[in-house]
Design a protein that fits this description.
CATH architecture: Up-down Bundle
Number of domains: 1
CATH superfamily: Outer membrane efflux proteins (OEP)
Low-confidence stretches: 1-12, 14-30, 52-65, 479-490
CATH topology: Outer membrane efflux proteins (OEP)
Strand content: 5-15%
Shape: elongated
């Protein structure tokens, strides 16, 4: 028993030596990083200016970016958005992808450290000792117990660390993709929610128009039966009633389709009391964004962040390709004990050790290393172009949204004037027809004009509400990025 304790002490000291060797190996790891120093490319658009829009009434400070809970004001819409965030399958898939890549990053990070494990084995063999005597044989036994450091590559030229950087950027890019999916989902839910309100308004208009035109047909039919209206006017009245019936069914179909779309986005049934029955212009902030918002906030859009993550990964890939030109050194070591008898396996004098360093020097690769490095450099240039394109697209989308925002109010005012004029023209046409001044054709034309103007008014009001949602989306949704930045810092320092 005393000898066993002494052996365990010696084995522990040797384990310390193995750990010390591993620590020494780690001190050599990452001595040289062959990846080029990352420098963020200059944005191919002006990012120092600011956009100026009338400040909203939500009490936000100048230059503050809003989050969705403070942007969408209607409590019903907030509940539907929360329902979608909890149940939407596309968003759930994005979240699971983030978790998968996070675990893969942990796997890649583990490559930076040696692997030390304990193993025990027993071998038994029967062999004949004298071929002249049948049945004469001997059974041999071999027992061993070891602590071993598995084959570990010294990262002298930053190959493993650059592979780890690629995995890290893939993880961060997946998180940005999740943010992008969330922002898109929120905007889509809000747009469909507002569209349902417009569908109800269109359906109400179609039904009122059908009721009015049915009454007109009844009057024309009475006139026809009395001999004061002709067959042409009667058929024209029938035509406009049939057109109104078609409009009602079209509006019902649009409403049902938007409800189906909302059900898919929410990933669950949406209660009717959470859906609008008219166009809700007050469902969002009354203005698009605070005055003086710097245009550089676009660089925090998830899609732009993804493009930069890909660029960082491509930059690290150059380091991996460069490291292939240099020697690769691996270490394998073990300590333990070996005995032919299990009872004295841990007695003194049974200790064994092994240390197997190896080096691989690339001499001739047929140009593969050179080609891989050239490909890595070209891929980096591709990612620079993709990053610049993402910024250009972002600025175009914001400017388009601002252009719409700056004109939609005037368009709505003009459409309201058009509706007023069309209603007045319809009333005059009816009055002139009843007094026999004009034919029923003028009433028919004025009715069509009024209905078209009222439909366009609904769509313009919807466009007014959706334009604010669109601007919210193209600004990146106002999502905070501090958590991601902090996570990046923690991963780089850990």
């Amino acid at each position: 028993m005393i000898e066993n304790k002494m052996f365990f002490r010696r084995l522990s000291r040797r384990a310390v030596l193995v750990a010390g060797g591993a620590a020494a190996a780690l001190t050599l790891t990452g001595c040289l990083n062959l990846a080029p120093k990352y420098e963020q490319p200059s944005a191919p658009a002006e990012t120092t200016s600011s956009w100026s829009v009338s400040p909203h009434a939500a009490g936000l400070k100048e230059g503050e970016v809003v989050v969705w809970k403070r942007f969408f004001l209607d409590p019903r819409l907030q509940q539907v958005i929360r329902l979608a965030l909890d149940n939407n399958r596309d968003l759930r898939q994005s979240m699971l992808e983030v978790e998968r890549l996070r675990q893969l990053y942990r796997v890649s990070r583990a490559e930076l450290f040696p692997t030390v494990g304990a193993a025990a084995s027993a071998a038994h063999q029967r062999a004949s000792v004298d071929t002249t005597l049948p049945g004469a044989s001997r059974i041999s036994h071999a027992y061993s117990a070891n602590l071993a450091m598995a084959s570990y590559e010294l990262d002298l030229f930053g190959k493993i660390r650059n592979l780890n950087e690629q995995a890290l950027q893939a993880y961060f890019a997946s998180e940005d993709a999740r943010r992008s999916a969330q922002n898109t989902l929120i905007a889509e839910v809000a747009t469909v929610w507002l569209s349902i309100g417009a569908d109800h308004a269109s359906l109400d208009l179609a039904r009122k128009t059908l009721s009015s035109q049915t009454e007109s047909f009844r009057l024309v039919e009475q006139s026809y039966n009395a001999g004061t209206a002709n067959k042409l006017e009667l058929n024209q009245a029938k035509e406009i009633v049939a057109s109104a019936k078609t409009a009602v069914q079209t509006a019902i179909n649009a409403l049902n389709q938007d409800k189906n779309a909302m059900r898919l986005l929410a990933g669950a049934e949406v209660s009717e009391n959470l859906l609008p029955t008219k166009i809700e212009l007050g469902a969002t902030l009354p203005a698009s964004m605070p005055a003086g918002l710097p245009s550089e906030v676009l660089l925090r859009r998830p899609d732009i962040s993804i493009a930069e993550r890909n660029l960082r990964a491509a930059n690290a890939n150059i380091g991996v390709a460069r490291a292939a030109f240099f020697p690769s050194i691996t270490l394998t070591s073990s300590i333990g004990t070996l005995s032919t008898d299990m009872s004295n396996l841990f007695e003194g004098g049974r200790g064994t050790w092994g240390f197997t360093p190896s080096i691989t020097l690339p001499i001739f690769t047929g140009g593969a290393n050179t080609a891989n490095l050239a490909a890595a450099r070209v891929y980096q240039k591709e990612q620079i172009a993709a990053y610049e394109k993402a910024i250009q697209v972002a600025f175009r989308e914001v400017n388009d949204a601002l252009s719409t925002e700056s004109t939609i109010t005037k368009r709505l005012d003009a459409q309201n004037e058009m509706v007023d004029a069309a209603v007045e023209a319809y009333d005059l046409a009816q009055l002139r027809y009843r007094h026999g001044v004009d034919s029923f054709l003028s009433v028919l034309d004025s009715q069509r004009t009024m209905f078209s103007a009222q439909q366009a008014q609904i769509q313009t009001r919807l466009a007014r509400a959706v334009s604010i949602v669109t601007l919210y989306k193209v600004l990146g949704g106002g999502q905070e990025i501090e958590e991601t930045v902090q996570a990046e810092k923690e991963n780089r320092t850990s």
